[in-house]
């Protein structure tokens, strides 16, 4: 039931799926595995070939149980209840795998993110998070204050933490109201990402 309302709220709030830009990049590269952290009910799988290997992690047990049941017969799909710092990445091929985090970093404190960073130095990583800007309007600031994620940082905060990542600011592009996001990525072709985002008017 919670998942139903979660999907309903997403349809109302989201102007364009966060996954669209990511999947356009993924399909350009010679990759065969996605590791998604904070996967919720793994809606990305609705638009993903069943031949792709997918590992979804979330701290919410109900999401993991639902996905296990839904994709029981798909041997390439795996789901585990783990937090970002608990995942063992040693079994993933870093040349064929990309790590995806949609709205995760702003839920996690610096210490746990640093553990994740130490484990994933050579992986391709694509992340999207809410970001604070000084010129945001009053409503946007209130919405960020009410977000379940208690670590929404400003641009400099993300850049200090993710010091070997690259960044693109997406202002008011993904939601049906004014709300800014920062796209953070590592070991990914910046030109390709910019071309994809440019084609979508970001």
Write the layout of secondary structure elements.
Blueprint: H1 2-13, H2 18-26, E1 33-37, E2 53-58, H3 61-70, E3 77-81, E4 97-102, H4 110-119, E5 124-130, H5 138-146, H6 155-161, E6 166-171, E7 180-186, H7 190-199
Parallel strand pairs: 1-2, 1-4, 2-3, 4-5
Antiparallel strand pairs: 5-7, 6-7
What would you note in describing this structure?
With 202 residues, the protein is α/β, with parallel strands linked by helices. It has a single domain (2-199), classed as Rossmann fold. It is built from seven helices and seven strands; from the N terminus they run ααββαββαβααββα. It has helices at residues 2-13, 18-26, 61-70, 110-119, 138-146, 155-161, 190-199, and strands at residues 33-37, 53-58, 77-81, 97-102, 124-130, 166-171, 180-186. Strands 3-2-1-4-5-7-6 form a seven-stranded mixed β-sheet, with helices on one face. Strand 2, helix 3 and strand 3 form a beta-alpha-beta unit. It is globular, with a radius of gyration of 16 Å. The protein starts with a helix and ends with a helix. The model is unreliable at 1-9 (pLDDT under 50).
């Amino acid at each position: 039931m919670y998942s139903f309302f979660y999907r309903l709220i997403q349809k109302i709030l989201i102007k364009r799926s966060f996954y669209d830009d990511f999947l356009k990049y993924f399909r350009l590269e010679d990759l065969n595995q996605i590791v998604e952290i904070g996967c919720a009910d793994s809606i990305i799988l609705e638009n993903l070939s069943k031949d792709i290997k997918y590992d979804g992690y979330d701290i919410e047990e109900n999401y993991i149980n639902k996905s296990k049941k839904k994709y029981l017969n798909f041997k390439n799909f795996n789901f585990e209840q783990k937090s970002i710092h608990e995942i063992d990445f040693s079994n993933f091929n870093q040349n064929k795998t990309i790590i995806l985090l949609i709205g995760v970093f702003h839920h996690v404190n610096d210490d746990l993110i640093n553990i994740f960073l130490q484990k994933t130095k050579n992986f391709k990583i694509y992340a999207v998070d809410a970001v604070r800007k000084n010129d945001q309007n009053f409503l946007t600031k209130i919405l960020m204050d009410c977000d379940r994620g208690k670590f929404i940082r400003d641009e400099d905060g993300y850049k200090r933490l993710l010091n070997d990542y690259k960044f693109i600011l997406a202002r008011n592009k993904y939601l049906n109201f004014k709300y800014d996001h920062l796209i953070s990525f590592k070991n990914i072709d910046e030109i390709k990402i910019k071309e994809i985002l440019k084609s979508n008017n970001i």
